[in-house]
Amino acid sequence: QGQEKLSCNPKKENGTHVVLCELGNPMKAGAQITVDMELSVSGLEDMGDAITFHLQLRSKNSPSPSPSKASVTVTVPVEAEAEMELRGNSLPATVVLPTSWHGVKGSRRLEDHGIRVEHVYELHNKGPGTVSGVTLSLTVPHLLGDHVLLYLLELGTEGGMNCSHHPALNPAQV
User: Fold this and answer.
1) Could you tell me the end-to-end alpha-carbon distance of the chain, in angstroms, rounded to an integer?
2) Residues contacting residue 85 through CB under 8 Å, at least 6 positions apart
3) In this predicted structure, what is the pLDDT of residue 96?
4) Do residues 104 and 167 both lie within one domain?
5) Checking CA distances to 116, which of 19, 43, 47, 145 falls within 20 to 30 Å?
6) What does the alpha-carbon distance between residue 47 and residue 35 come to, in Å, rounded to a whole number?
7) Which residues span the domain enclosing 55?
8) Residue 67: per-residue pLDDT
């Protein structure tokens, strides 16, 4: 009847985090209670797909020959939430080649292959959670039929990321 707030005390037992809540002392015979608990757990990024809670009801009745230890295990799925955003730009933003321009075959000079354009992509985590193990696949059209559309010169990353690239990167070693 009615609602009461429980007095709970967190502590550590054998390397495990334990929360002890006193439900009633003394509790009347035949009493039935319902307990709603809300637990806030941080640092779940590396916990896997689920977290398991072991709930146990202990009675301290002194006349009892062996204290009651009814227990139940509850497994809750862990779902991380993070919103990723990909931003990109080209430097310069616009390039116009004259219609009379032709590349010089066999040249190792960059300017004989066209105008340099740098494409920069930034992957941002807008949260609320952290992310790891993200893979970004970026496909760049470098051929149009048998003709070179974009000559891919180099590929680089910042911020401790690993990068693998297509073997057609800088094939003429310009």
Assistant:
1) 82
2) 123, 124, 125, 126
3) 86
4) yes
5) 145
6) 26
7) 7-77
8) 55
Please tell me the number of Cα atoms within 13 Å of 65 on its side-chain side.
0
Whether 154 and 169 have beta carbons less than 8 Å apart is answered as yes
pTM comes to: 0.51
Pick the closest to residue 41 from 68, 76, 7, 90 (CA basis). 76
Which of the four pLDDT bands, split at 50, 70 and 90, describes residue 32?
confident
Q: Is residue 2 part of a domain?
A: no
Residues 68 and 146 in one domain: no
- The domain tally of the chain equals 2
147 pLDDT band, cuts 50/70/90, is confident
**Contact between 169 and 155 (Cβ < 8 Å):** yes
Residues 62 and 117 in one domain: no
- Per-residue model confidence as pLDDT tens digits over 16-28: 888 888 877 667 7
**What tens digit of pLDDT does each residue of 58-83 get?**
776 666 555 556 788 989 888 777 88
